[in-house]
Specification:
This protein is α+β, with helices and mostly antiparallel strands and 90 residues long. The chain is built from 1 helix and 6 strands.
């Protein structure tokens, strides 16, 4: 997270789980590429633009962090199911 004068300038929130020695991405919200977006890896993983949903990055970070905290178990379960469908049991 990059801040200046108490304002977030850039951030990444990432949820992943460990499978063997590999980290499997589940969810990521970030400001890279010049805009706020999220990736839902249990779906397509393609970026979903979010900048119109928030007034600033401080609000976005707080809201998205809480969203991840509340949904982490469900999203991990969905990601595991998708991975299993794509590659078979691990």
């Amino acid at each position: 997270m990059d801040t200046e004068y108490g304002k977030i300038q850039a951030f990444t929130i990432q949820l992943s789980y460990e499978q063997g020695k590999k980290q499997v991405e589940v969810y990521r919200a970030d400001t890279h590429h010049g805009y706020l977006h999220e990736h839902r890896f249990w779906e397509s993983g393609e970026p979903i633009r979010l900048e119109e949903a928030f007034t600033d990055y401080n609000q976005a970070y707080q809201t998205l962090f809480e969203h991840v905290r509340q949904n982490a178990e469900e999203w991990i379960s969905e990601r595991r199911k998708k991975r299993h469908e794509q590659t078979g049991p691990h």
